Amino acid sequence: MKRTVLVVDDNDINRLNLKLLLKDDYCVLEAGDLDAADAALSGNRVDLVVLDLALPPEPDNPQIGMGYLEKLRSESPDTPVVVITGHDERALALRAQKLGAQDFFGKPFDPDEVKNTIDRSMEAHWQAMREQEMHRALETRVNSELLGESAAMQALRAVIAKVAGAPSTVLIRGETGTGKELVARKLHEASPRSGHPFIAINCAAMSEQLLESELFGYEKGAFAGVGKRKLGWFERAGGGTLFLDEVAGLPLSVQAKLLRVLESGEFSRLGGDAIISSDVRLICSTREDLEQRVAAGSFRDDLYYRIHVVEIEVPPLREHIEDLPLLADAILLRKAAMCGKRIEAFDEPVLEQLERYSWPGNVRELENVIERSVVLAADNVVESIPSLSGPQPASGDVDPMTLWLQQLPDSGIRAEKAVADFERQLVEEALERNQHIKARAGRWLGFGDRAKDKMRYLCDKYDIEVADNS
Ligand SMILES: Nc1ncnc2c1ncn2[C@@H]1O[C@H](COP(=O)(O)OP(=O)(O)OP(=O)(O)O)[C@@H](O)[C@H]1O
Q1: Nearest CA to 285 among 185, 429, 216, 194?
Q2: For the Sigma-54 factor interaction domain, which residue ranges apply (predicted)?
Q3: Residue 436 CA to ligand 1 centre (angstroms)
Q4: What DSSP state is assigned to residue 179?
């Protein structure tokens, strides 16, 4: 995709010359005055502005252009500006650079100088953006490699290699801490978009308004107190990948907007009318049952079909526990280096202890446990992991009642009460997940034919208030 240059100059001949010079390598937009420049900037993704300093309403006063340069730097700090000065106006050009202009060239135009200046400025800007992105990626990515030699991990890597090159939207499923974000990064790195940004957003951690404004950006004045235009993630990730973690947490209003972007490839900033086209690959992840969300009406079915064009399942650690020694040693080396300790490997008994645990929090929990043990290790030796008490069967093998009873603080508690509490919790959860409709909640619990009567009986028994007609 060609990058876009906006030429702001009131002289038609100059604009035409610049367009002819640039059109083979860039998409060129033109503006003859500042209003037209504002309109072009709010309606398009602009990668660089070429700004003449001598502009109407006072073409003899370079202050007009200087003022606009300052406004651009403050409202669109991500867009580089190259200024055009008159002949022999070096002092003016230097002043413009102090205000943030990336570079300058003079009139009359020397075609080679103009082209070189613009190419160089564009490249320097994109290089800086790439470095910023790499720096961010390094900071957020504690471990860049998807480790594991088990059949499950090899299959996962093969799917990533196969899917990475396709433009399709991907839905990554898996329990918490299994490596869904890492898989999304790997997909991006192996795709033709790898030279562009990868932006990860946790949808469950943000309010509706914040999420909407961060995704789509906003215009100056869109809300009270907003003095600057802000580009949203859809624009900032231009050419790259947007990863929506915990997509089930998207509020319905944002789901509608997201669907529109996926269908039309276009969106508008909040408070703006201009249509902006998006060139972003979307990857989503969920640890929740999205189908159940769709059935319950809290996730749009049309969006669901759009986002799970390709699906990747990341297995929980207990299903590839044979990778644990490899993962544990790699994490140990990293955490030890972080703490300035020299611990090179775990002893066999410690590894056995780690392998016997069920790891409900998966690789993230493993990282946390190892970090804790490294911090506490005396004499650079990890002898045992105190927080993992004894052998534990994989959680899939234990019924929820047993797990729940294990967590009770007083082992002498009467079983009858424990069972009643558990039953009440289940009924409450079923109602919560099914819009407080008794019949639906009863079916969700597997009560079959007389679901509603059974739920009515249980609600009476536990004094749970639900509207009668539900
Ligand atoms: N196979 C793996 N090899 C190396 N590191 C891994 C692997 N799987 C996960 N990790 C590491 O575990 C941590 C958690 O991974 P990540 O954040 O990708 O999980 P997640 O499934 O997205 O979690 P959540 O559901 O909580 O968002 C990260 O530090 C990641 O680098």
Answers
A1: 185
A2: 146-375
A3: 35
A4: S
Question: Which residue do the tokens 């564009």 mark?
Answer: 122
Give the C-alpha separation, 342 to 146, whole Å.
24
Q: Say what the pLDDT of residue 136 is.
A: 58
pLDDT of residue 141: 47
Backbone angles phi and psi of 422, in degrees to 5:
-65, -45
| Pocket-forming residues, ligand 1, beta carbon under 6 Å | 142-143, 145-148, 174, 176-182, 245, 287, 327, 363-364, 367
Residues 211, 246 contacting (CB under 8 angstroms): no
Write down the residue that tokens 């009567």 correspond to: 453
Tell me how far the alpha carbon of residue 362 lies from the centroid of ligand 1, in angstroms. 8
Q: E strands of 118-272, at which residues? A: 170-173, 198-202, 217-218, 230-231, 241-245, 266-267
Measured distance CA(421)–CA(123) in Å, rounded: 64
Atom nearest to 144 CA in ligand 1 = 31
Confidence of residue 418 (pLDDT cuts 50, 70, 90): low
Q: CB of 40 within 8 A of CB of 17?
A: no
Residue nearest to atom 31 of ligand 1 (CA): 143
User: How far is Cα 347 from Cα 247, in angstroms, rounded to an integer?
Assistant: 40
What is the residue with the minimal CA distance to atom 18 of ligand 1? 179
Taking the CA atoms of residue 410, residue 457, residue 429 and residue 296 in that order, the dihedral angle to the nearest 10 degrees is 170
User: What whole-number distance in Å separates Cα of residue 274 and Cα of residue 39?
Assistant: 8
- Strands (E) in 190-288, as ranges, are 198-202, 217-218, 230-231, 241-245, 266-267, 276-277, 281-286
On whether the pTM is more than 0.90, the answer is: no
DSSP class of residue 97?
A: H
Ligand 1 mean position, distance from CA 183 (Å): 8
Residue range 256-291, pLDDT digits in tens: 999 999 999 899 898 888 888 888 999 999 999 999
- How many CB atoms lie under 10 A from the CB of residue 190? 16
Indicate if ipTM > 0.90.
yes
